[in-house]
Amino acid sequence: MPAPLEEFCGSVFWNASLLAAPQPDLPLCFEQTVLVWIPLGFLWLLAPWQLLPMFKPRTKKSSLTKIYLTKQALTTLLLLTAVAELVFTLAEDFGQYPHPTPASRNPAVQYTNPALYTVTWCLVLLLHDTQRFHQHRDSGPLFLFWILSLLCGVFPFQTLVRKALLGLVPDLPRFSLFLISYGLQLLLLIISAFSDVAPETEEMAKKNPEVTASFLSSITFSWYSRMVLKGYRKPLEMEDLWDLKENVKTQQILSRFDRNMRAEVRKARRELERRRCKRSLREAAPDHRNGLGKAQSQDILVLEEKRPKRKKEEDVGGPSGDYPKAWLAKALIRTFAGNLLKSVAFKVVHDLLVFASPQLLKLLISFVADPTAYAWQGYLYALLLFVTALVQSICLQQYFQLCFLLGMSLRTALMAAVYKKALTVSNATRKEYTQGETVNLMSADAQRFMDLASFIHQLWSAPLQIALSIIFLWWELGPSVLAGIGVMVLLIPINAVLATKARRIQMKNMKNKDQRMKIMNEILSGIKILKLFAWEPSFERQVGEIRVRELKGLLHFTNLQAFSIFIFSCAPFLVSVASFAVYVMVDEKNLLDAQKAFTSISLFNVLRFPMTMLPVVISSLVQTSVSTERLERYLGSGNLDPSAIRRDPSVDCAMQFSEASFAWEQGAEPVIREVTLDIKPGHLVAVVGAVGSGKSSLVSAVLGEMENLKGHINIQGSVAYVPQQAWIQNATLKDNILFGSELDEARYQRVVEACALLPDLKLLPGGDLTEIGEKGINLSGGQKQRVSLARAVYSDADIYLLDDPLSAVDAHVGKQLFEQVLGPDGLLQGKTRILVTHSVSFLPRTDEIVVLVAGAVSEQGSYSTLLANGGAFAQLLSTYGSQEGSTPEGEATAGAAEEQDGGVPETSTEDMPADIVTMTLKREASIQQRVFSRSLSTRSTKSLRKALQAGEVGPKDKQPAEEVTGQRLIEKEAMETGKVKFSLYLRYLRAVGWGFSAWVFITYVAQYAAFVGSNLWLSDWTDDSLRYWNQTYPTSQRDMRIGVFGALGTAQSAFLLAGALLATRGAIRASRILHQQLLSNILRVPMSFFDTTPTGRIVNRFAKRYYVSTSRQLRRLDSITRSPIYSHFGETVSGLSVIRAYGHQERFLQHNDRIMDMNQKSVYSWIVSNRWLAVRLEFVGNLVVFSAALLAVITRDNLGSGIVGLSISSALNITQTLNWLVRMTSELETNIVAVERVHEYTEVENEAHWVTEQRPPPGWPSKGEIQITDYQVRYRPGLELVLHGLTCDIGSTEKVGVVGRTGAGKSSLTNCLFRILEAAGGKIVIDGVDISTIGLHDLRQSLTIIPQDPILFSGTLRMNLDPFDQYSDEEIWKALELAHLKTYVLDLPERLSHQVSEAGENLSVGQRQLLCLARALLRKSKILILDEATAAVDLETDHLIQTTIRSEFANCTVLTIAHRLHTIMDSNRVMVLQAGRIVEYDSPERLLQQQGLFSTMAKDAGIVSAQATVL
Q1: What does the pLDDT look like over 178-206, one tens digit per residue?
Q2: Residue 989: exposed, middle, or buried by beta-carbon count in 10 A (0-12, 13-18, 19+)?
Q3: pLDDT computed for residue 936 by the predictor
Q4: Is pTM beyond 0.85 here?
Q5: From CA 633, how far away is CA 315, in angstroms rounded?
Q6: CA quadruple 324, 330, 334, 340: dihedral sign
Q7: Are 1184 and 355 in contact (CB under 8 A)?
Q8: Which of 346, 661, 998, 1003 could bridge 1059 with an S-S bond, Cβ 3.0-4.6 Å?
């Protein structure tokens, strides 16, 4: 090879003697060929990929910029230098004075090199121009080419400079051209370091500088410096963060993942079918061994099926719980293959470079030990160490960036996929997963994947590093290294055992966590009931029991982890002890010198990382495999099958049922049986029937929410749906009505007026821009129902499914809604309406009535036809019609007066919600309500409408941009800023325990002392090789060296284990204490806190896992932006049927994408901030290595090789240590943010004590006498009074009805009796005890309430009735009998142990209401407050409830908050409230005679005398 090259160059290609000199040089031929071709070859290899955009059609070039023009100008100059050199060579050979003979002419290299450079510079010009097609106008390969070219040019450059200094410049023109070319390349490198931003991308660059960052800025993350500076100067907020790049936005990630997921799930389903076929074949084959034939074994199977099923959590992975398996990992790999391949490339380069450092260290030690070595060799080794470390750092940080990005994308893909799945999930799956469990899939399980992604590549990288380490160690120590390998092999099975155990514990723990989150969700949803019934301790105990199990599992898990870490941190050390000991023992000539020892130690240090990481990866893999299983089960489960809902335009009905049978899940009993119905377009069809007859199920079947068993339903046109329990979003009232549709002002006004919402808008602080809280918390039941109806009407659909929309509203409001919206002359005339109703009065005006009995149609026809038939319907009417017949408007109502001459701007007395904030807001915004005005005539409604159109009924402020007090209900989530307070660290350490903290500190210090000791000992040991040079090494000396080295290592490992065990115990203790404090406090905070705080935000605190200023703030932002994701998810799950009915799944998906991107922004920013810091830290670390190496070279005469080895091998470790130090500091601050946020909720002010020293007498209250004296209440200090000095006496066993319009203070009175609101003045005395002097639980347990909303909890029926197990089964059955539920419960297979699903969803609303009655019957205290809520039940059940209350509570004092006047006309007295004052208080007879407010209300409602309505 050299011969042709020498001919090509005209000089010697290689001469080693040139390097054996104090001032070395390289042969000219080598410089002209190899050093020129390396950079050029690199560029030509990569250039084609860079030129691809030129050939893509429709790509547009960006504008010219100064940087671009400068680059092109400099490249043109380079081109000219190359051409000039070529011309000069030609001139020399063929010009005026040509060389006389061909042999004396210039060698070929003088032609080829300028020609190659000419073509290359043309290519560079083209590459610069191609970059104008990109947003990134800077090319990575070009930047690397400039560096390579300059590095290779250093050798000829120093040769020429040295000759020039000696005055030996033989070829001045070429010398000048080389220097010009070198200078121009240097300038181009410098200019390439700056970002070239085109005018078109300036706006984009402001939103995200990464998009236009230069190559150097990208690899060093310098584009992020502005953010770090901003974060240092002031706490960062969401607005400060830059936008995400398109490829990491949720929508992009989800669409890629979804495509791959669908393909993989299809394959997995086919595999599942094959498995099932095989199993059924096996089961079908006769089993002769036990003598059972096929038929018999079938019987046994049936028997087995009849046994109570184990709870679903227990059959994870069992054959009964078969599901599509092993598809998730494949789908994820296919989605993120690009990222995985890039990170593999960076990791391979990094891993190989890791082994360069020990070899360079070896060369450096031998250089120090060899006095004859030339100084330049030492400087070269030092420089190479620095460059190697630098490239290593850059590769490592790029690798980490890709890994963390992968983690973030994995989490996003899974969270978005779970959300998307929740929108389409089948009923069977929905029943199996409560909201809490699904939130867990989104939070905990998706987070597992994110955690694993950051070191997934260790799975192949760790074995590779271990293998390479062993090969290099073999070179150093020979076969002795086998002793070390033996130790490692012994450790592997131990780790396998630990991993299997850990997996088992982890699976159990995830179930515990699910259970805990599920209960927490329910507690927060039903907190009002817990407070009213004083049930908090029972639920606190339930959560506590699960938490104890969870922490026990966690302790086992962390102990296993501690042992695993102990074993693997011992490993490198045990390996080195074993290897060194065997090495010096097998042959007395084997002396351990510095070169061998420290190269080996460096290799052992390299070995330490993969060996430490391997168990961590395995344990993370174990945890992730549990999550994989859970996610595969959920995401792979069946979707709702809408095939039974057809849309055949040829059918001439709006809706047609053809022998339709539906059940709630496959294989269950049908709930809708063989229904055949034709509904004509434009008809109003009423569906009636008793509680549980299947009315709501019929509507659900039309919506496609049920499993089809037989037949089908055909629908023509779009559908709107009003559910029985209104679903309201946490948004403005206007947004709730528009529900994503465009605003048509005229239609909006018509709808708001027809749905009787105008007066409500007058009351709400911000008009229709008032924010409605979660679950419509600041609206009454009736208002929620009217908003829900308005949403449907505004949607302008073809078919309306109305599931009892009139149940929550007063009768006269119901009448108005029927007249103006639902009836023959309402807004919806001409539309097809299916109205489920219990209200008999509207039935004569419907086109058709369908009577359901046990899910089947028993009768069907017009009102008159059915009456004439004399069937079930006629019977129902004859029994209950008379009650309603006494008033021409249907049911008597307390608010019917409001539309007559007198009244306030309000349409109903639907009871306002009992929550506190709402009332405050209403007070603040409409104090005028306190003055009773009777001037509102029919004209007022018109003026209201005009006011709304003119925008006056809205925020009272002139500028609409500014919010009115109370317009916003849910405040922005509070966020600490700046440094985490030191007191929080102390608080956490106190929770860990001072003893634990001190011992952990001591053990870690001791461990580090042992580590330093062993290194110093080794350094001293290596000097023995010089002391005993050419002598026999004494055995005693050898044994002492090995013994002390071994003892120090053992001590190191023992201290580490002790520290790890103590730390985990302390952390779990802290976790227990903090969770207990949080739970205990959350259950003791007043109701107002829950009304203004979204459930998702509180759940986020319970779901928490236990430079810095920027990083810390970004973690806070991450935590805060995660809450809306869970809140929105919870909202979606609860409103699923509504969202699906309107077909708005896509809109909700997009909203989820937006809020997830908000969270992504903070996570991505946090990832980059860590990389930004790491690059800079590693650079400092690399400088330390370089300095240590330089120092060793400069002072080599005064230093022993042992010390040099120790100092440089320690310096090589410093980068890793610095990285870990900052990462841990950052992690610590980050995780202490979790403590900070838990602490925030433990500081929320509590309500009064549950139990105080002053206890009421036993059996209190025995009479049930209530004295209210000058009682005043305000919602919070500084606000107006809500109740203005109420004074009244209620006698023992007296029945008192409380009436009044919305905002009169009826609910406030209930809240005062239970001390949900505390007094601002005056007192309430019950049986001689002032209620403010006793504990809340003593008070609340002594009163009973039947609340308006029937709230149940998941668990058994028995638990829902008696959570403290205070009553016997007989008492419970008696209560159920009186509540008319006994026969229903007896028919259930598990009776009292029947599992109630989340929020009682597997019971009808009527049944839930009866269960609440059973609760009251069971407690049977002397005072009953009836927040009368019989609207959700049919007339028969309503009658039963009223009868039961009258008979069973005859000896009790009963306060009835009246919604319908007919229920309180038999009261002993009626209390009429108005604007927080008692205006009338007497018997109904007297009040009717007095011609006051009550009599007006009664007359308007058609009640003439008190006797007329007594049931």
Answers
A1: 999 999 999 999 999 888 888 887 888 88
A2: middle
A3: 34
A4: no
A5: 12
A6: positive
A7: no
A8: 1003
Whether a cis peptide bond, with omega within 30° of 0, leads into 358 is no
Which tokens in the block code for residue 775? 């679950």
Distance (Å, rounded) from C-alpha 861 to C-alpha 847?
8
Structure tokens at 71: 């680059």
| CB contact burial 224-257 (16+ within 10 A = b; e otherwise) | beebbeebeeebbeeeebbebeeebbbbbbbebb
Q: How many CA atoms lie within 13 A of 697 on its CB side?
A: 32
Tell whether the model's pLDDT for residue 150 goes beyond 90.
yes
What residue has token string 């970002």? 195
| Closest among 1122, 1168, 1152 to 254, alpha carbons compared | 1152
Backbone angles phi and psi of 773, in degrees to 5: -70, 175
Which residues touch 245 (CB under 8 Å, ≥6 apart)?
A: 208, 210, 211
The DSSP call for residue 386 is H
User: What's the CA angle centered on 435, arms 1387 and 250, to 5 degrees?
Assistant: 150
Half-sphere exposure of 568 (CA within 13 A, CB side): 26
Query: How far apart, in whole angstroms, are the C-alpha atoms of residue 736 and residue 740?
Result: 8
The structure tokens listed for 133 are 């097609």
The neighbour count for residue 1092, using CB atoms within 10 Å, is 18
At residue 543, φ and ψ (nearest 5 deg) are -65, -40
Return the H-helix or E-strand segment holding 645: strand 645-646
One-letter-per-residue 3-state SS of 746-760: HHHHHHHHHCCCHHH
Q: Are 191 and 62 in contact (CB under 8 A)?
A: no
Which pLDDT does position 899 carry in this prediction? 32
Question: Is the Cβ–Cβ distance between 484 and 575 less than 8 Å?
Answer: yes
Rounded CA separation 1040/1021 (Å): 10
Looking at the chain, the number of H-run helices and the number of E-run strands are 53, 22
Helix orientation angle between 1145-1194 and 375-424, rounded to the nearest 10 degrees: 170
pLDDT single digits (tens) 1010-1030 = 988 888 887 787 777 777 777
Give the three-state DSSP class for 906: coil
1447 burial level (CB within 10 Å; 0-12, 13-18, 19+): exposed
Specify whether the CB–CB gap between 631 and 414 falls below 8 A.
Answer: yes
Compute the distance between CA of residue 128 and CA of residue 121 in angstroms, rounded to an integer.
10
Calpha distance 733→738 (Å, rounded) = 9
Q: How far does Cα 62 stand from its chain's mean position?
A: 39
Q: Is the pLDDT of residue 62 over 50?
A: yes
Other CB atoms within a 10 A radius of the CB of residue 428 amount to 16
Q: In what order do the strands lie in the sheet with 799-803?
A: 719-722, 799-803, 832-836, 684-688, 848-853, 856-861
Decide: 324 and 265 in contact? Cβ < 8 Å.
Answer: yes
Least confident of 133-142, 914-923, 962-971: 914-923
Q: Is 875 exposed, middle or buried (0-12, 13-18, 19+ CB in 10 A)?
A: exposed
Candidates 1460, 1467, 1468, 1470; CA nearest to 1495 is 1470
Residue length of the chain = 1511
Going 498 to 503 to 508 to 514, the CA torsion angle's sign is positive
Sheet of strand 655-663, all strands in order from the earlier edge strand to the far edge? 645-646, 707-715, 655-663, 672-679
Confidence (pLDDT) at 970: 56
Report the DSSP pairing between strands 1469-1474 and 1295-1299.
Answer: parallel
Q: Which residues contact 106 (CB under 8 A, 6 or more apart)?
A: 10, 89, 92, 93, 99
The Cα–Cα gap between 1198 and 1116 comes to: 53
